[in-house]
Structures are given as structure tokens and as C-alpha cells.
Amino acid sequence: MYEYSEEKDNKGFGLVNLNGNSVTNKDDFTALKNAYSKVANLGGDGGYKTNGQPSKCPPKSDQWDVDLKDDELPALPDGAKEFFDKGAGTPPGLKGGSQEAGSDTPTNAPAANGAVTTGASTSGSASSGSPSKGAAAGLYAPEFSAAPLVCGLVVLASSIFGGALIL
I need a surface site. Which of 15, 82, 91, 138 has the fewest CB within 10 A? Predict the structure, then answer.
């Protein structure tokens, strides 16, 4: 099962088709439902081994198409062992690392090129009228606000008053 409902980009992977509040079961839903109905629910501890020993793999059958001994793993594909022995090698296209890739000259664009908020300037200049020289060029110091100071004093006074009530 890949996903419950078939999405428009993943045709054929869902178990049901959704159309508004209507749900239509697909053939895979029925097949999965029938397969689940043939399996008995585990009872008790579900086969937990109290001695700490690993479970054994089931023997090869129509439902389990694996025929390995308990101490075997599948063999590596041809050529894969080389990557374990020598590594994957140098990544293509980089000579000194990603910090040295690309141009030495930065390219700047107006702030509105990537803006998702309204009111962005399309001229490429900060609010002061000077040309932008980087990300911090449009930053400015906000006016002083007494709100944090007042909130802090209210919290302090409430704490002292509450402490006095407890004593």
C-alpha cells in the first residue's frame, strides 16, 4: 500500500478515489482487505522473545520469497564493493569545496525580486534612498517603545504581590 487516496500526481498508487465527500474503493483496496481478513490477529505479547534471542526468518514459501540462512545477507551487486573500499570519490564540478564554487563577484537584485510582502521597493534601494549594498542595507533601528518595559514591571509587581500573599 503506497497511500490511502489516489492523488492527481500519483495515479494508480491509492486504495480509494476521493471526489468531494464521495469515496470509491479501488481493486487494490478490496485485495488488501481480503488479504487482511485471512491473517489472524496476534494475541498476547505478539511473539515477543523474553530470552533476547532474535526471531528466525520463515522458510521460503509463496508468501515469503527469501531463501537465506539466518546468518546470511544478500550479496553486494557487482562493482559496489569498490565504493566500500575506496569511497565514492571526488564530487564532480567542485575543486576546493562548495565554499569556493560559483562567482567571486556577488550579484545583487532589487528587494522586490523575491518579495512576498506588499510595499517592497522595485528600485533596489533602501528606505533611506541610498543604494542597497547587501541584505542589511534595508535594516533600521526601530523607535523606542515603552511596552516591553511596562510589561516587565507588571510581571515583577504581580510576582512580588503573589509572593507576599503566600507568606
Answer: 91
